[in-house]
Amino acid sequence: MEEYFPILVALSVAMLAWGVIEYQSAYQKSGQLPYVMANLRWACDYFMKCHTAPNVLYGQVGAAGPDHAWWGPCEVMQMARPSFKIDATHPGVGAWVSYGLGSENADLPGFVSLGNGFGQAGFERAGYLPGQFQATRVSANADDPEKMIRHLKNPTLRPDDQRRQLDALQAFNRGYAATAGDDPQLEARVRAMETAFRMQTAAGEAFDLRREPPRVRDAYGPGEFARGCLLARRLVERGVRFVQLSLGGWDHHANINAELKKKCEEIDRPIAALLTDLRQTGLLDDTLVFWGGEFGRTPVSENADGRDHNPFGFTMWMAGGGVKGGTTYGATDEFGFKAADGKVSVNDLHATILHLLGLDHEKLTYRYSGRDFRLTDVSGTVVKDILA
User: Fold this and answer.
1) Which residue of 46, 185, 256, 284 has the fewest C-beta atoms within 10 A of its own C-beta?
2) Distance CA 172, CA 62 (A)
3) In the chain, where does DSSP find H-type helix?
4) Are 323 and 341 contained in the same domain?
5) Is the pTM of this model over 0.70?
6) pLDDT digits (tens, 9 = 90+) for 27-50
7) 1 within some domain
8) Can the peptide bond before residue 120 be classed as cis, meaning omega within 30 degrees of 0?
9) Is 322:347 a contact under the CB 8 Å cutoff?
10) Do 13 and 72 fall into the same domain?
11) Phi and psi of 31, rounded to 5°?
12) Residue 97 domain-assigned?
C-alpha cells in the first residue's frame, strides 16, 4: 500500500448523537454546515462517477466513558488503554504515525499541532516514544510566521555563527552521552535544537500565509481555525507527515441552539475550502483527512436548552487517500443514543487510520517497560468496508 501524508483535522466537537443518515439530513436542513455538506455531496457525487471516490461519512463510534478526563478527544487521539484514562505516559496518534513513517522534510517537524482544543496537550505527547516524535505546537492566530513562532529569527547572531555555536553545543552533548550512556531526553533536546535551527529558514516560508493569493485566503475565511486549515495544506505540501488542528468550545450543556450554530459557522467554510484546495492541488489522493470529536450528545435535553455527554454513539468522517467515497457506515438506534449497526471502537478506528497510512497496527510496536506496546494495545480491527 502507498504511504499517505495525513492531515488530521481534530475538533473537540460535542455533536448531537444522531445516526449518520439523520446527521446528514439534519444539518443540510438546518443550514448550519452548508459549505461542508455541499463539499461532501460534491465529493461523493463526483468521485462516484469517476470510480475513485476518496470521501466517506464515517460512524458510528463508541467510547469507553462519559467524561472529558476519561475519554474526550484525547482518547480518539491517544493510545486506547485498558484504563481509558488520559496520562503523560502513552503517545498520541500523531506521535505513533511520526514514529512509523518518519519525516519527509528535515527542515520542518514531522508532527505539527495547531489550534486550541480541549485536552490538546494530551494528544501532542510522545509518551514513552523518543521525544523527537512529539508534536510541535504552533499558534495560528496571525498570518506572519514571526508572530506564530517565538524567536524564529536570532536578532544578534548570523546563521553561520549560530551554526558554529550549535555545533559546539552538540559536541558537548555527544561527549556527555558517550560517558553517561544513552539519555533519551538529551537526544530529544539535541534533535529539537537542530530542527529549530533549520526551521529559521524553512518555517519563514512554510508558515507565511501572506504568500497565498487573496482568493485562496478569502475561500478559507477569517479566524484562527481558518488559518489553521490553510496552514495544514501548506505543511502537507512541504512534507510534514501529520498535522492536527483542534478547536474547543463545543461542550454545550446549555444554550446549545444558539451556541452550536456559532461553532458550525466557525468550521464550515474553512473545512470545505481545505477539501476543495486539496482536490484542486492533487493532494487529496494521497492525503487522509479525519474529522472527529470527543463524543456525541444525548438525544434528550439537559438544563432545558443543552445536551449532556454521550459516549455510546457519534459520527466521524474521513476524506482522501484510501477511503471509499459516497459511503455511510453504521447507525445509532432509533433514539440516537447508542451505536446499533456497524459499531467501531477506538481501537478499530486507530487500526483503520494506520492501515490507510500504510502501517500495520499489529506490527507498529515500541518496547517499553518490558513489553511491546501498540497504538491499538491488544485489540483493534481494520474497518475494511470503508476502504476504496
Assistant:
1) 185
2) 50
3) 20-30, 34-50, 72-77, 93-101, 145-148, 159-180, 184-206, 214-220, 224-237, 256-280, 346-356
4) yes
5) yes
6) 344 455 666 655 554 433 333 332
7) no
8) no
9) no
10) yes
11) 75, 15
12) yes
